[in-house]
Amino acid sequence: MGFVAQACYPHPSQADGEEFCIFLNLDFNDGRGLSILIQPSALPELVWHHAVLDSRRRVFSAPDRKTNPWKAGDIRGKNRGSVTATRKLGISDLVFYAHPLLIVTGEHSWPEEIWGEVLQNMVDVLPYESRQRVSKMYGLGETTSEWFRSVFDLSGFDLGIGPDDFGATVIIPEAAAFRHNCRPNVVWHMDAQTLEFHMYPLREISKGEELTISYISVVAEWEERQNVLKEFYNLSCTCAQCRLPPPERERADNQIRRILDIHDVLANWNTGSNASIEMAEELITLHKLQKLDQDLPEAYCFAAREYNAVGNVRKARQYASLALNKAIYIHGNGWRMAQDAKKLESFPENHWSHQRRLQV
Question: Which Pfam families would you find in this protein's record (predicted)?
Answer without folding.
Answer: SET (PF00856)
